[in-house]
Amino acid sequence: MILMFILFLGACGSDDAGGGGTTVDEPDTTDEATTDNSDEAEATTSEKLVIGFSQVGAESEWRTANTKSMQDAITDAGHELKFSDGQQKQENQIKAIRSFIAQKVDAIVFSPVVETGFETVLQEAKDAGIPVFLSDRSVDIEDDSLWVTFLGSDFVEEGRKAGNWLVEELGDQEDVKIVELQGTVGSAPAIDRKEGFEEVLSEHSNFEIIKSQTGDFTRAKGKEVMEAFLRSDGDNIDVLYAHNDDMAIGAIQAIEEYGLKPAEDIVIIGVDAVKGAFEAMAAGKMNVTVECNPLFGPQMVGLIEDYLAGEEIPKRVAVEESMYTMDQAAELLPTRQY
Ligand code: GZL
Questions:
Q1: DSSP code per residue over 169-188
Q2: Cα–Cα distance between 62 and 58 in angstroms, integer?
Q3: Is residue 268's pLDDT more than 90?
């Protein structure tokens, strides 16, 4: 009996001896507990999110690649995607964002078709406590608390790259006449690519933009507007600067139908570096394309997960980019991912 009593006291004593050793809030060091902890940790970081994605539309090769990159990244990370194709219409995007708010999604990814007119709906998302992540294009809104971050290219720099390449290529040529196919009126890439290109040309009086009109980032419209440029100024055009490759490719068709040689009679500059541009350059019909990388879906998902896990996110995250010329095209074409 005495022995039993001593053993009993010892058992109680060991817990006490363990003292703070195994109190509830101390991390247990056994494997099972570590696994449990990591499971718990795993559950927190890989929590399934519902992400609403309001995309501009499906107007270009670039857009198609960007949509795929974003959709794959969201689903590969195990999250649920609610996707809306805005068909390049602001009203469709506003409707989509309101629908995401009503469905109480965890985050909204938004690529605004134009820079203005979204303040009210972004305030509604903020009031609903839903973080908005700007993708590809930004908005011209004073109150930057309406979005977490803007992940996308520096379009002004893309315009500068195009201008600097042209000056390098034709710098000493007198009286260079340029026609410009602008992107969607009011969109960040159209505004900024024009700004960057003109900033460079302003230092060189031998370059002049004689015609500039929107082709809305599409091949069809790019061809149509280039046909009009050729009718009015055909033999007086030395260079085409197109704000994206799709419009440049449409314009190339118009130039050939007019009877001129693209990339020889008229220098062709595009932006995006899509596969179609590499094919045109490899065929000797386009001179250069400035890269605008659409494949940032995984980067965007990482930013969303980090933010929702409580991490600090920079207000602006730029995408790294290059530019490619005709002589590089044939070799690089097989490596292009979009
Ligand atoms: C640029 C993107 C532009 C592309 C076009 O990031 O917003 O929109 O340059 C696309 O091809 O239509």
A1: HHTT-SSEEEEEEE-STT-H
A2: 9
A3: yes
Q: Is the CB of 136 under 6 A from ligand 1?
A: yes
- Coil, helix or strand at residue 124: helix
Ligand 1 pocket, residue 61 CB under 6 Å: no
CA distances from 124 to 110, 128, 145 (A): 14, 6, 12
Looking at residues 84-109, what average pLDDT do you find? 98
Query: What confidence score (pLDDT) does residue 14 get?
Result: 36
Domain regions of the chain by residue span: 50-152+295-320, 155-292
Which atom of ligand 1 is least distant from the CA of 245?
11
Q: Is the CB of 66 under 6 A from ligand 1?
A: no
Q: Return d(Cα 269, Cα 290) in angstroms, integer.
A: 8
- For tokens 């999604």, what's the residue? 105
Using the Cα atoms of residue 295, residue 85, residue 149 and residue 181 in order, give the sign of their dihedral. positive
- Domain spanning 50-152+295-320, CATH architecture: 3-Layer(aba) Sandwich (3.40)
- What pTM value is reported for the model? 0.84
Ligand 1 centre to CA of 324 (Å) is 17
Work out which ligand 1 atom sits closest to the CA atom of 274. Answer: 11
- Per the prediction, the chain carries an average pLDDT of 89
Cα 139 from Cα 112, distance rounded (Å): 7
Q: Ligand 1: distance of its center to the CA of 146 in Å? A: 23
Q: Give the model confidence (pLDDT) of 163-184 as tens digits.
A: 999 999 998 899 999 999 999 9
Is pLDDT of 35 > 80?
no
Relative orientation angle of helices 119-127 and 90-102, to the nearest 10 degrees: 10
CATH superfamily membership of 155-292 = Response regulator (3.40.50.2300)
Is the distance from CB of 253 to CB of 225 less than 8 angstroms? no
Is 59 close to ligand 1, i.e. is its CB under 6 Å away? Answer: yes
| Residue 309 token pair | 């896990």
